[in-house]
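Supplementary Note 3. Input sequence used for the single-chain structure prediction.
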Amino acid sequence: MANKFTERAPLATPVQYVKGVGPVLAGKLLKMGILTVGDLLAVTPIRYLDRRNLIKISELTPGKDRTIAGEIVRSNIAFMGRRKKRIYELVVDDGTGKVSAKFFHFRQSYFEDRYRVGSRILLSGEASAFSQRLQFIHPETEILGEGDDAASIGRIIPVYPLTEGLYQKTMRKIIRNAWDRFNGHIKPIFPEKFTEKFNLADPWKCLQEMHFPSNDLDPELLTIGRSIAHRTLIFDEFFFLELGLALRRKNHSVKPGIAFPRNDEIHSKFISSLPFELTAAQKRVTDEIFNDMSSPRPMNRLLQGDVGSGKTVVALIAALRAISAGYQAAIMAPTEILAEQHFLTIDRFAKNGGFNYALLTSSVKGFEREKIIAGLADGSISLAVGTHALIQEGVKFQKLGFITVDEQHRFGVMQRAEIRDKGSPENADRGWPDILIMTATPIPRTLAMTLYGDLDVSVIDELPKGRKPIVTRLYEEHNRKKLYDGMLHELKSGRQVYVVYPLIEESEKVDLKNATDMSKEIARIFEPQFKVELLHGRMAGERKEEIMRAFKENRVHILVATSVVEVGVDVPNASVMVIEHAERFGLSQLHQLRGRVGRSEHQSYCILMTNYRRTEESGTRLAVMLETTDGFKIAEEDLAIRGPGEFLGTRQSGLPPFRIANLARDVGILSQARQAAFDLIAADPKLSAAENLRIKEVLLSRWAGRMNLADIS
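The predicted structure, written as discrete structure tokens, is reproduced below.
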């Protein structure tokens, strides 16, 4: 029976109307971001199983992926090795022999219910030899019911991502049901010439191949995303992402901006008053920003620079140009500590600048807050530094002309738009403000093309003169005395030390050293000669500020902290960063923490304290930290290790999610899709040509709610 959804837009039909789904299963699919039939058909298998040729257990050999079918003859808890490790074991018999399947991670009640003696089962995976017997470790499994053999055996089988309470058999069944009912509504998107130029396949054929691959295909190529179907679907995802960014950039470039006049006298005077000389990279980047500020179009530029490279000073120099032209400037940071750090830097360098500046965060209250808000509204405050408080209702600027957004990936697209709107021109003779986005998180080129595809990019790739490379070492628990001896040597030389932990308090689930207990242990060893303090994210803002100020003023010598010190703390006298349980931190986090030291002429050290038990992934992260201090190399490695979903939290970035594309793997396709998208917007800015109307329809659907595309809708 047709419903109101299928009549209107078949692929937008809520997934619960697919045969075999219903409201309960629809709730589970919702956790995976699957709301509609179109979403369901876009789910990409994470790998493929080759079940074209089942083999007999008697023919199994170690080291190759194989699939066998048989009857479960034993299903129970077992104990393995001298330590009697608790595992779950199945024994399967196919009449030619027996093989065991062992599981080290399991929920007993679930396994006992699912794997019952007498059930027919498929096991897929790599067989290995143990005590002269063959076994599977954590194989793919599928319980076979009556009539299941035809669907599960003799062909290439997709393996889908799942959520709790959802099984492979169910996922395959509902995708088959959705396909059977709705596949006739899958239409070509691109004009024929476009398809030929970029060697793209028909989308109907692509989805059919992805979900129901024919037996003449190579399952390995399917798994690594190298088939023509995968290439077409990857191009499609990247193209519509880049098309939205190209349109955003085009819309931005036609808005009126502010052509700020140069004031070389003021700038020369300010730069010569700095207690250091700007690096060549800082000078180059300042010129790039000044060129944008001279243009009558609004600036939209990303400034990348590793920790300690001097981005805040560059932002201040640019803000000064806007202020000297009679405009206001704002610097927005994601946390109070980072906003305070920027404010302290500005306070150090701009005390005699001849303009008023203020810090506005949620901690500023009462009369002080009212005074700052009034100063922004009447123009008497020229520069505001703050957090989200700057974009709250009631905060108005008289004449905002220049905005710096720091660590932008923590805000997202919408908040970036909100701060820009604070400077929206209320009269025809004023243009939109310039925006400079800063990040100390080095962004691989592929992510910069996606997250910031609508921006121009500047890079500060040089540290200030006199800085020595940080020495990074890996210590295990048996090196702890050596660690404390090294800390003591630096403390006696007048330096200071950070000790960072991944937890605040002890957890029953994980046996980790934690900041609270270890701060007491470190105090017992080093006090009273050296003062130890604990800093963590749960503390009140005032208390955090008090501790940080004491550390900056060298009244606290050892700061024991959680990763709250990852950004925003500038203490040049600190020369040692100890990271406990370093295997628990992400690569970018480790790099950011290491960047808290090495900010003076003194030799600095980063000590990675780690557990004997390390996963392969954590071992790779630590090896990268030992090999290089180059933030961009580290970012590329981090992207390769973690994938784009976790790197920078792309869900917060305001971008459509990727279902099949992989930024680390598919950079070549991304470059091609980006060029195609920007060329199309250059040729047809409103996508109004007849052959582009279908592209416009899909674009509006994909970007719905993420960006204002009113100019083409």
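The longest strand covers residues 65-80. Residues 126 and 670 are 34 Å apart (CA to CA).
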